[in-house]
Design brief:
With 310 residues, the chain is of the alpha/beta class. It has helices at residues 3-13, 95-101, 154-169, 190-198, 221-225, 243-255, 288-291, 300-304, and strands at residues 27-36, 41-48, 61-66, 70-75, 86-91, 108-115, 144-150, 175-181, 202-207, 217-218, 235-240, 263-266, 282-283, 286-287, 294-296.
Length: 310
């Protein structure tokens, strides 16, 4: 560990005589609910062991600790003003995420955060235009709002959609939600999709491969965008999913007339510390735990999305 990082960790954790917990010390949260979204995706409902609810913005993430195993960066899937426990939707892809998904109700995990930028949809009374700055937390404004999610990419977008649908009910713009998944059994948040549609959002779900009983769309999300019905000349688009999906979605949107400055994507690299100390999440000029994960697509991000993670 570099000397400056070691000093920062010692100062943060109080090993220099200050006993107050800092950003590297996880708070204890009890698992008060578990919901299996798919065969490998679980939503955990968490309540703080001490203190009140966490303040966060849609699109931010926390570092979740499975004690004795490790940490993983997981986006918050709650809505900031939602009553009840803090929710994280986790795909079991490694030892830490498998342990988190399997945590029994009543057990305790660690939570550090929230970290990173947000989708910029929370301040619904004073929305400002999207710009091409590295930070993704300037509020978005105007016209239609389009949310495009691939697979578990809907989890970081769930709070933003809730906020946009609530804004629409108060006279805001139209909301379009386009969701893609590998198969019908991999679609998450069925109840939310139905609730958003009842509230007036235009919801379209498509899958790569059909399954028995599926009567919906089959095809990539890009095949749905052209017929979704939004105005590309006045649309703000939020995109989250596999990088190849985000890249082709952004290109399709731009070809259809969407301003690249009004497209936001969620980037992820190997988040280790969450506070821009370790450098593991560097992508070009960005440390994504600090400058992301939400960034405008325009400019250098369009190029960086063509670079493989190393």
């Amino acid at each position: 560990m570099p000397a400056d990082l070691a000093r920062a960790v010692r100062a943060d954790t109080g090993s220099g005589g200050d006993a107050r917990p800092g950003v590297m010390t996880p708070a204890l949260y009890r698992v008060v609910g578990r919901r299996a979204e798919t065969d490998d995706v679980t939503t955990l409902a968490l309540a703080p062991v001490v203190g009140g609810p966490m303040a966060f913005r849609s699109g931010q993430f926390n570092m979740l600790t499975a004690f004795g195993i490790g940490e993983a960066a997981i986006s918050v899937s709650s809505t900031p003003h939602e009553d009840g426990p803090l929710r994280h939707t986790v795909r079991a892809v490694g030892s830490v995420t498998r342990a988190l998904c399997n945590t029994p109700i009543g057990d305790v995990i660690g939570v550090r955060g929230p970290f990173g930028t947000d989708w910029g949809v929370g301040d619904t009374d004073s929305l400002a235009p999207v710009d091409a700055s590295p930070s993704g937390d300037a509020p978005v404004t105007g016209g239609d709002f389009v949310v495009v999610a691939g697979g578990i990419g809907l989890a970081p977008l769930r709070g933003a959609v809730d906020e946009l649908v609530a804004r629409r009910a108060r006279g805001g713009g139209r909301v379009f939600v386009v969701v893609g998944a590998r198969a019908p059994s991999q679609v998450i948040f069925h109840d939310d999709l139905e609730a958003w549609a009842r509230a007036g959002a235009h919801v379209a779900v498509t899958v790569d491969i059909s399954e028995p009983g599926w009567s919906g769309r089959v095809g990539l999300v890009t095949s749905v965008l052209g017929e979704a019905g939004f105005d590309p000349g006045d649309a703000t688009v939020l995109v989250c999913g596999p990088e190849i999906m985000m890249r082709f979605t952004a290109r399709t949107l731009i070809d259809d007339g969407v301003d690249p400055n009004r497209i936001r994507v969620s980037l992820e690299r190997n988040m280790e510390c969450g506070v821009a100390w370790c450098g593991h999440c560097q992508l070009g000029p960005f440390l994504l735990c600090r400058d992301g994960p939400i960034v405008p697509y325009a400019g250098i991000v369009a190029h960086l999305l063509t670079q493989r993670e190393r």
